[in-house]
Amino acid sequence: MTTAYALLILLPAILGGVILVDLCWQARGWQAGGMKIFMGAGLGIGSAACLAFFWLLGFGKIGWSFLALENGIVVLMSGLWLRAWRARGGRLPGIPGQRINGWRAGTTLVFTLVFTLVFTLVVAAALAIFTIFTFLNPNGDFDAWTMWNLRARFLFRLGSGWMAAFSPQVDWMFHADYPLLLPLTNLVTWTLLGQETPRAPILLAGLFLFCCAGLLTAALSRRSGSSALLAGVLLLTSPRFLDLAAFQVADVPLSFFLLAAVVMGVEAWADPGSRHGALALAGLALGLAAWTKNEGSLILLAGLLAGGVLLLWRSNWHSYRRQDAAALAVGLGLPLAALLVFKIFIAPPGDLVGEQTLAGIGQKLADPARYLTIAAVFRRYLLAPGEYLLPITPLLALYALAAGWRVLTKGEQLGLRWAALALGVTLVGYAAVYLLTPHPLEWHLRYSADRLFMQVYPAALYVLFASLKPPECFWIRQSNSKS
Amino acid sequence: MRAEKTAAWRRRLAQWAAVLLILVALVSLGQKVAWARRLWGLERVGTDQVATWEQRMTQVKADLQGERLIGYLSEVDFGLPNDPIDTNTEFTLTQYVLAPTILQRGAEADQVICNLGEKGYKPEYGARMGLILAGEYGNGIYLLRKAAK
Q1: Nearest Cα to Cα of residue A452 among A306, A298, A304, A349
Q2: For chain A, does the N or the C end have fewer beta carbons within 10 angstroms?
Q3: Are the beta carbons of B102 and A128 separated by less than 8 Å?
Q4: Direct distance between the N- and C-terminal alpha carbons of chain B, in angstroms, rounded to an integer
């Protein structure tokens, strides 16, 4: 029952997020509907955590009045949605889903049934694994009780004296400088439930796991049903991804926000008609990534840098106007404001920058052994992310070579190039952080590198499968298999 | 003709690659399911690290209610043999249980939790740091206080 109540407490945030996504991005079709639900749920929860932060700053503690605010926002947004709906003459919104040269998911019944059956089994098994682990470890794993749930516990137990949770006396191992999306969401749930129950972080971890898989599948199903199911199966069968979700750590939520940013970024490039709304949502997702974990700030910078590079490289970059930048900034506004206020005025210095000297940095930059160590670890996880039975990247490469690239519109090409570049820059950024880390390099790599690769994995699967011909093209002989 | 053959060969390769991907994914998931089945057992519910530590620290937590800052010493601080579980995991678990009291490594605070496991406490350990024994809670957990000057 506690879990159901916790879900009820999160419901206004989830509903608000879904309505927001629908207002901003008016694609139609059941695939787009699925995307809106999965993306909206995560974006709504993240946005509510930003509001909770400003509420704490303003009023000192969370209470029922905060839930009233959330409900008020949902009512207001429902009114806006109804107005938009009536303005369209009561029809569902407008942009048709894209399909590859006439291909439709489920071209043959057997083909669709087999893929759907496998996917359903995988979802059930993933849920079972998640449930068993969380039954046995309801408080998650090391990082959960050291950082995310610990911070929520500090905030809940301190009440109106919550600022003490960020005392410089807190040991660096507890990372009091880490952003607050997860702790604040759990704080709101605990406060309104009136108890500090592990059900809240468990529910949050489960929501982000299945929203991430759902978003990946729904987003790809706009292009091909079988590609979508194949990517969804790959994500939900990654033993490491399932572990991280059940561990209640921030890597899966971060991977969700990165995926949402990439999906909306690609839509923005691919479809000029919905560019502003998609850009606002991409900005919101990037901002929430930064509000989830410090790595999210690097992802945000990588996304902006990749976008800037592509715009400069394009000859007709003038077609991207100030309104585009404004749309992105509107989406970024709330989470970025929360992050900046937190980092500038509240958080103690982080362990990665606190004790660095220029001489020390120079020494690390000039040490070739550090580059080799990082390259070796990165090569290992690039080849074999996710702890599958066999290294998955060579298999994906073989599949990509055989399937070939699908015919992309100019906009899609740009969007997918932007996404690939952003993911590449993110990984280079991670390598740079390791290069300069004040901690012993091997230790730091051993305890975090595989998780960083899992953060980008769902988005990388999206980019790959959105770029390739779908299985229908080489599985079912049809007259239109030329795509 | 040759182009057709190449296309057919590529199609076949793509089919096999897709099957292989799904197989690897399913076998990996199967292994994980088997792992979860091995792990499962109702008798193991409530015996996770946090629950065990919460239980072990119940009395310490009650005695330190309302304290803002507490010190923490373990094997490594006395030059005793130790591993990362002694040094880090139990430190983080203790902080998780005692929050919002801040746990600070070392003996700077007025009261210090000393976690020595099976090695046990000896008065000379505390004496080295100007501390005296104030409480013993079992499982190698002790509370030390600054000795009066």
Answers
A1: A298
A2: N
A3: no
A4: 98
CA closest to B102 among chain A residues: A170
Distance CA A395, CA A385 (A): 12
Bridge partners, B106 (sequence order)? B72
Could you tell me the pTM of the whole model? 0.94
Nearest CB neighbour to B33, from listed A125, A150, A474 = A125
B85 touches chain A (CB under 8 A): no
B96 touches chain A (CB under 8 A): yes
- Say how many C-beta atoms besides its own lie within 10 A of residue A320's C-beta: 18
Q: What is the ipTM of this complex?
A: 0.92
Distance (Å, whole) CA A109 – CA A207? 31
With CB atoms and an 8 Å threshold, state whether A145 touches B92. Answer: yes
Q: How many CA atoms lie within 13 A of A267 on its CB side?
A: 32
Distance in angstroms (rounded) separating the CA atoms of residues A294 and A276: 27
Sole residue written with tokens 């182009």:
B3
B3 contacts on A by Cβ (under 8 Å): none
What is the spatial distance between Cα A353 and Cα B13, in angstroms, rounded to a whole number? 49
**CB contacts < 8 Å between A and B, how many?**
144
A254, containing H or E segment? helix A251-270
pLDDT tens, position by position, A131-152: 999 999 999 999 999 999 999 9
What 3-state DSSP class applies to A103?
A: coil
What pLDDT, on the 0 to 100 scale, is given for residue B118?
81
